[in-house]
């Protein structure tokens, strides 16, 4: 007897603090569900291979590339996108630091970088330059050369302890 393929499933999770449900293939990329199903267009589609970090979201407290996560894995999870993170004190601090350091140029990588920075600072409120570089290593930026981004994250660290 062949196992049945589930074509549609009711996937329930918390998105940016709100309980939501999505009916569709549990194998669909979470990236598509977040963008097309819930309008979270700050989750960018850069590569669909888990290499660029433009689609980064926080899933149950961990930074993940949503293009590599099946929607079914989100069942019961808590997901934060840049749209949800914008409502936090941590975002205000990082936003100010990124602007002040000139860490935003084209802006395509910025949502993923901000979420990566939040995870870095939540886990280590006083990171070294090397720890920041390692923490953002999964996020590609073609404009800044990373120095301004590292500077911004280090500046935010001094200002926002406990707000990530």
Give the N-to-C terminal Cα separation: 50 Å
Q: What is the makeup of the main sheet?
A: 5 strands, mixed
| Form type | globular
Tally of individual domains: 2
Order of strands side by side in the largest beta sheet? 2-1-5-3-4
Q: What is the oligomer described by this structure?
A: single chain
CATH homologous superfamily label of the largest domain: Beta-grasp domain
CATH architecture of the largest domain: Roll
Strand element count:
5
Q: Segments where pLDDT lies below 50 for 5+ residues?
A: none
- What is the strand content? 15-25%
CATH topology term of the largest domain: Ubiquitin-like (UB roll)
Tally of contiguous helical segments: 6
Q: Indicate the mean pLDDT.
A: 94
Class from helix and strand fractions? alpha+beta
N-to-C series of helices and strands: EEHEEEHHHHH
**The CATH top-level class label of the largest domain:** Alpha Beta
Per-chain topology:
Elements lengths: L8 E7 L2 E7 L5 H8 L18 E4 L2 E4 L12 E3 L1 H4 L3 H13 L8 H14 L5 H7 L11 H13 L5
Parallel strand pairs: 1-5
Antiparallel strand pairs: 1-2, 3-4, 3-5
Could you describe the 3D structure shown?
This protein is an alpha+beta fold. The chain folds into two domains: 9-81, Beta-grasp domain (Ubiquitin-like (UB roll)), CATH 3.10.20.30; 88-159, DNA polymerase, domain 1 (Orthogonal Bundle), CATH 1.10.150.120. It is 36% helix and 15% strand. The protein has six helices and five strands; from the N terminus they run ββαβββααααα. It has helices at 30-37, 82-85, 89-101, 110-123, 129-135, 147-159; strands spanning 9-15, 18-24, 56-59, 62-65, 78-80. It has a five-stranded mixed β-sheet, with helices on both faces. Strand 1 and strand 2 (18-24) form a beta hairpin. Helix 3 packs across helix 6 (147-159). The mean pLDDT is 94.
